[in-house]
Amino acid sequence: MKYFSYLNSATEIIKLYKAQQPFHLFIKDFFRQNKKYGSSDRKQITHLCYCYYRLGASMKNIPVNEKILAALFLCSHQNNEMLAHLQPEWNEKINLPVKEKCILINTPYEELNIFPVSTEISDDINKDEFIISHLVQPDVFLRIRPGYYQTVINKLNKKHIRFTEVSENCISVSGATKADAVIAINKEAVIQDYSSQRIGPFLKIVKAESSPLKIWDCCAASGGKSILAKDILGNIDLTVSDIRASVIINLKKRFEEAGIHNYKTLITDIASAPVNLKPGSFQLIIADVPCTGSGTWGRTPERLSFFDEKEIEKYEHLQKKITTAVMPFLKNGGYFLYITCSVFKKENEDMAAFIQKKFSVNLLKMETLKGYNANADTMFAVLFEKY
Questions:
Q1: Of 86, 128, 135, 329, which alpha carbon lies 20 to 30 A from 56's?
Q2: Is 61 helix (H, G, I), strand (E, B) or coil?
């Protein structure tokens, strides 16, 4: 029976995976080396693996294949064909709340161990709601760029693609939607998580003392925050940097699609090497710093099983080094925007306190950008003004 085959294949893959690379890359390599799986097979097996990882360290003492089925039950909210064949009594109860489902799988809700080191989570996060949110795959969010709202809506409607309007210029679509086949990504809309889009109100606080506004996106990665800054702040003189040359190459392609041309790039290890920029030259520095990424593990649930608590201290140390390195390049009266996609207090509130104590800054706005009630990531941001 194909369902047993799917279950056995998922079990084999999970036993092979040792977290030496992101799981989505690992499973692609696995299927590349094992050509017997068709597209439907790959989809079903991949889904089973991700359900398994959504349970984190829960149910450690049962066989992998049994945990996969239990995970599929907890992660499903509508009738499931595999459960209908292998666990029909569970499938009939698929719409029960998680706490009641736990009774059926003989695992007390209180014993679910989904999220590691939950004691480190920031105090203003509802831990129970946040942790249980990992049982659901987050949505894909689009930020519609200025002037393209009706264009994007018309294109989605024409293709009968279902979407939800989350906020002004923000819509969500299912993870299976191939948005880039319908709209001009980066030109008309940017694929950007809802919480990441909520950095916008922080940028709106920034007052330009001259035009163009000189901005340094010092940990630019794919450039999403830079595109957001361009759309909100308008005329900007942008410098972007990252430690990875490959990332800058991808960023340049994305900026070309987004119509951003007035910018400079810098490949540098800010935390360890001198930066070839003029001190006091920027009116805004955006530091979307490297972090544990713990607010995004709904998208990479394998991290729930393989996270090492020592990473929190490692990233906290790196964040302090980066912040200390870039602050001299901010002019007096300029703004420093610190961002993480972490939920850990040491990377968030504690870092905000460190910045306030170490530098001559005023805290203007600080917020944990909670995404667990919107099927989105959870992030943290704080905006300072230097004096």
A1: 86
A2: coil
Per-residue pLDDT of 2-50, as tens digits, reads 899 999 999 999 999 999 999 999 999 999 999 999 999 999 999 999 9
Taking the domains of the chain in order of start, what are their residue ranges?
A: 2-113, 140-191, 194-386
Q: Which residues pair with 237 in a beta bridge?
A: 214
130: Cβ–Cβ under 8 A, 6 or more apart, which residues? 115, 121, 343, 370, 372, 378
One-letter amino acid identity for 308? Answer: D
Q: How many residues does the chain have?
A: 387
Distance between CA atoms of 364 and 369, rounded to whole angstroms?
16
Q: Which architecture characterizes domain 140-191 according to CATH?
A: 2-Layer Sandwich (3.30)
Could you please state the CATH topology (level 3) that the domain comprising 194-386 is classified under: Rossmann fold (3.40.50)
Closest CA to 93 of 107, 105, 109: 105
* Backbone phi, psi, residue 272, to 5°: -125, -15
DSSP calls for 174-231: -TT--GGGTS-BTTTEEE--HHHHTTHHHHHH---SSSSEEEEETT-TT-HHHHHHHH
Question: What does the pLDDT read at residue 30?
Answer: 97
The whole-model pTM stands at: 0.95
Report residue 292 CA to chain centroid gap: 11
Q: Which residue has the tokens 């530091």?
A: 287
